[in-house]
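queue> holo job accepted (2-acetamido-2-deoxy-beta-D-glucopyranose)
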Amino acid sequence: MTKVPLIYLVSSFLALNQASLISRCDLAQVLQQEDLDGFEGYSLSHWLCLAFVESKFNISKINENADGSFDYGLFQINSHYWCNDHKSHSENLCHVDCQDLLNPNLLAGIHCAKRIVSGAGGMNNW
Ligand SMILES: *[C@@H]1O[C@H](CO)[C@@H](O)[C@H](O)[C@H]1NC(C)=O
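queue> job finished
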């Protein structure tokens, strides 16, 4: 068997990355791996619905709000409270750079989403 040159792997990854959409099944797998199924009482289907409603599974989605803050990534996490976008005042409660919430590995966003859902309102915080 011949080895696949690294450049092909990298460019196909970049092509996927450009598309910025993650499939429902791939997302379910990552969420499961990161122990979100049942986290704070929310099943995997709750998390999938949240991601779909917020971003239509677009991992690089950025949306500007009326107050000048921005929502980032799959879970549309807000820069006013949760991440630092270096543009406007932020509480930065997740101690994360907003750009990291767009990373295709999804880890920073999942970590921050866990923090948000752990607050009093649970998923109503979205
Ligand atoms: C994903 O979001 C980015 C940033 O908001 C946007 O430029 C891009 O067109 C979106 N991709 C899809 C497939 O909707």
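queue> The mean pLDDT is 90.
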